[in-house]
Write the structure tokens for this entry.
Amino acid sequence: MSEARPVGADLARIAVFAALIIVLGTVTIPVPGGVPITAQTLGVMLAGLVLGARRAPLAILVVLVLAAVGLPVLAGGRGGLGVFMGPTAGYLVGWIAGAIVIGLIAHRGRFTWWRAAIAVVVGGILVVYLFGIPVQALVTGVPLGPTVLSSLVFLPGDLLKAGVAVLLAVALRRAYPRAFPAGARVAHAG
């Protein structure tokens, strides 16, 4: 049985990942259609892998609450309630669901590189797209099919971010296993 981690330690980890997601928003490439290529999804993937299904969504909620009150914490220095009515709104909600799915997959059983890879592809890409693309189509007035096709421009970068997230999470797991959810089993091979 694992011992419980102090609440302050969890709050600190949540705050660190919220800050990481915000900082990664400074890396932005504008794309026609209103949804920029950003490194913030790398932060979401890392949060899911490191914090797990219960704490990662809290880090994302911190970022979204800060954006809602008008702070420029999203890609390109965006903030305010308007971002929750724009073409990126579905992706923002998808971050929460995606982080939960990443945490559930990555920490079910032993934490391994291949489980982490499946987690970030399913949660960090597929789930986020499932939320983001339909909302983008609705807000922009572009039919769903063409919106799906135009969203493929994000896939290579998201796959690259997924690979980076897995490498960083595996290295962190080896170097500092206490950063991960208490009670998660450690893989000795894999």
About this structure: DSSP finds six helices and two strands in the chain.
